[in-house]
Design a protein that fits this description.
Oligomer: single chain
Distance between the termini: 39 Å
Largest sheet: 5 strands, mixed
Shape: globular
Order of helices and strands: HEHEHEEEHH
Structural class: alpha+beta
Number of strands: 5
């Protein structure tokens, strides 16, 4: 597929990620401005590069250009201090009128075999483009700082060992 076409497809997703980052960072600011504790410690987001998307699609034997359900091609990561904060943030998101929750995956109550812990939401979010409104699917991962640290290490090891992490390292994780 032509790079220009990919850019055209991904541009609304980039806008959605940027807008959501601004909105969640503003929530932090609002809490602090009122002298309140913010359940959100930090927010980051990204849309994967075209080469990364193509590699992931090939790995998952996926032909869809939109990333399918979740996709993992574009998303927001919200970092909290505690597990209780994760629940508060999920409630804040659920109450928003500009975000519609499509699905949830609770990897905290139902930890993956690898030990991965996180709370994932697939949401619908509408951006305004030159061609009118576009409803976008975005993945929101909510995790604690400790969970994020662990996930980062585990992800790095997956790439280092090409998903064949030696048993002695897997046990230590």
């Amino acid at each position: 597929m032509d790079i220009l076409l990919w850019h055209e497809i991904l541009e609304p997703y980039e806008l959605a990620v940027k807008e959501l980052q601004v909105k969640f960072r503003h929530l932090i600011k609002e809490h602090h401005g009122k002298g309140l504790y913010s359940p959100i410690e930090s927010v980051s987001g990204r849309v994967k590069s075209v080469s990364s998307i193509l590699e992931k699609m090939q790995r998952r034997h996926c032909a869809r250009r939109d990333g399918g359900a979740g996709g993992g091609y574009r998303g927001i990561r919200i970092i909290c201090q505690s597990v209780e904060d994760i629940e508060k943030v999920a409630d804040l998101i659920q109450k928003r009128s500009d975000i519609e929750i499509k699905s949830e995956k609770d990897y905290i109550r139902h930890m993956k075999d690898s030990g991965y812990l996180s709370y994932h939401l697939i949401v619908y979010y509408t951006v305004e483009t030159m061609n009118g409104p576009k409803r976008i699917q975005v993945e929101i991962q909510i995790r604690t700082m400790a969970m994020d640290f662990w996930a980062t290490i585990e992800h790095s090891l997956q790439y280092k060992y090409k998903a064949n992490i030696p048993d002695h390292i897997r046990e230590r994780l």
